[in-house]
């Protein structure tokens, strides 16, 4: 759901792919490619273009049933490798312990309160396989917490996001700013957590 900025989809996916490929593969500390979870998956844009090309199985979770129904048709034949479609808000969702190599959380943390985000990240940590990663990719404000009256979400600055990650008992192993996005939108940062 690119909010009128559909033209940035390829830039977004290519940036995410380059970021993720730094961690995937064989060898010490590398992350496996067995199973990924797409959080706030919507109709499955990230599942289709980023996760399914890199992982054997992908699960989707989204609070809106209509989006997940659309994902089934949008994913087409690739949908055969989707393990589960979970219709649930992230504040209640409990991912299966030890299932995921990567948990991808993009453009959705602004819909969670600080407490819900911390608790969700703690549950995600338990759902990781050895050397698994939680990836957050989201808008960051320049300072403080900026409410969005249109969709009742918030945009937090990077310092606040990092503090909440720490409260969840996770550490940031890598962080990058997404480049080549329009100047008028918030900066987008990607964080890899373990």
Automatic annotation (TrEMBL):
Keywords: Methyltransferase, Nucleus, S-adenosyl-L-methionine, Transferase. Belongs to the methyltransferase superfamily. NTM1 family. It is found in: Nucleus. SUPFAM superfamilies: S-adenosyl-L-methionine-dependent methyltransferases. It comes from the Eukaryota. It catalyses: N-terminal L-seryl-L-prolyl-L-lysyl-[protein] + 3 S-adenosyl-L-methionine = N-terminal N,N,N-trimethyl-L-seryl-L-prolyl-L-lysyl-[protein] + 3 S-adenosyl-L-homocysteine + 3 H(+); N-terminal L-alanyl-L-prolyl-L-lysyl-[protein] + 3 S-adenosyl-L-methionine = N-terminal N,N,N-trimethyl-L-alanyl-L-prolyl-L-lysyl-[protein] + 3 S-adenosyl-L-homocysteine + 3 H(+); N-terminal L-prolyl-L-prolyl-L-lysyl-[protein] + 2 S-adenosyl-L-methionine = N-terminal N,N-dimethyl-L-prolyl-L-prolyl-L-lysyl-[protein] + 2 S-adenosyl-L-homocysteine + 2 H(+). InterPro entries: MeTrfase_NTM1, SAM-dependent_MTases_sf. Its EC number is 2.1.1.244. It comes from Characodon lateralis. This is protein N-terminal methyltransferase. It is an enzyme of class 2 (transferase). Transmembrane segments: none annotated. Gene3D superfamilies: Vaccinia Virus protein VP39.
